[in-house]
Amino acid sequence: MAETITIRRPDDWHVHLRDDAMLAAVLPYTAEQFARAIIMPNLVPPVTTSAAAEGYRARILAALPAGSDFTPLMTLYLTDDTDPADVLEGHRRGLVTAVKLYPQHATTNSHFGVTDLAKVDRVLAAMERAGVPLLVHGEVTDAAVDIFDREAVFIERVLDPLVRRYPGLKVTLEHVTTEEGVAYVTEAREGVGATITPHHMIFNRNAIFAGGIRPHYYCLPVAKREKHRLALRRAATSGNPRFFLGTDTAPHTRRAKEAACGCAGLFVAPVALACYAQVFKEEGALDKLEAFASLNGPRHYGLPPNEGTVTLVERSRFVAEDVHLPSGDAVHVFRGGEEISWTIETAAGASAAA
Ligand SMILES: NC(=O)N[C@@H](CC(=O)O)C(=O)O
Ligand SMILES: [Zn+2]
Ligand SMILES: [Zn+2]
């Protein structure tokens, strides 16, 4: 029997919207499903100051479809030179929701990332005192560490010492991909949470090499072995409030991905909520979807849950292969060209004040 589920309007706690024509093309997909989203700051150049975040927020609001009440929650990209006073002032003004730590060279557009945590000690201490959350891309960049081990090694070498050094700092381990990550977050002190993407719960690393190299399954952190995928599904559907929805939708053009050195990142926004619903249904846990998608994130960030609701129906629909840009470039959609099993029927009501 076709299942129907109504949940409070969800938020997406990890989104790359990019800028300019790409922003205009991808934003509607996020804005139609989610009331709020954490906007990642890894533009070129990155969003490193409150002034830059203010400009980027204005460009996002200007690109919204008419009538949308979507609220972008802005983040600053932490660098060795980040000024604690600017972070605190941006946060006090309600402009800056969080700060993002990219270890230098860990992922797309991270060359300005932090080289040594000792250099940002004053910023982290100030954030801890003021209640500004730190969002973390959790992979070491040591080339000697195997790519499939970089998250687990990061937890041991960097994350755990950081969580202990700043015991009051709110920390989100973004796009957790391993059973080690799940175990760490489950057992860590109060204030540590993690986002889980739909795609890391849907495929494992074999998809990247199925019959040839498949750039549209390549993202960072790279998908891991099957046992890790299963651990993520258990964590997301457990109801544990430390785990919440973050799609890591990360659009790149086909040209940038289908290349000798292709970019990391999947454009999952158009199918995001449908993919999560599919996973929760398969796990027999649709009753836990609302907590994961709409309650646990606001609770971690100290924000009110949204007021309206969204209704999802188990009805199959065809996903268009690509989203097109005015330049003629195309962005491949995750699961594009396939039938997916869930459709959003109605979204009703206003989001909570940001
Ligand atoms: N997830 C990705 O593979 N890529 C992201 C960066 C990131 O979230 O690490 C991007 O900005 O393209
Ligand atoms: Zn990342
Ligand atoms: Zn990301």
From TrEMBL:
Residues annotated as binding substrate: 16-18, 42, 137, 220, 252, 264
CDD domains noted in UniProt: DHOase
Key words of the record: Hydrolase, Metal-binding, Pyrimidine biosynthesis, Zinc
InterPro entries per the UniProt record, alphabetical: Amidohydro-rel, DHOdimr, Dihydroorotase_CS, Metal_Hydrolase
Pfam family membership, one: Amidohydro_1
One MF term in the entry's GO annotations: dihydroorotase activity
N6-carboxylysine modification, residue list: 100
Annotated metabolic or biological route of this protein: Pyrimidine metabolism; UMP biosynthesis via de novo pathway; (S)-dihydroorotate from bicarbonate: step 3/3
Superkingdom: Bacteria
Catalyzed reaction equations: (S)-dihydroorotate + H2O = N-carbamoyl-L-aspartate + H(+)
Cofactor stoichiometry and binding remark: Binds 2 Zn(2+) ions per subunit.
Binding, Zn(2+) 1: 14, 16, 100, 248
Segments forming domain Amidohydrolase-related: 12-311
Cofactor(s), by name: Zn(2+)
Quaternary structure and interacting proteins, as annotated: Homodimer.
UniProt protein name: Dihydroorotase
Protein's gene: pyrC
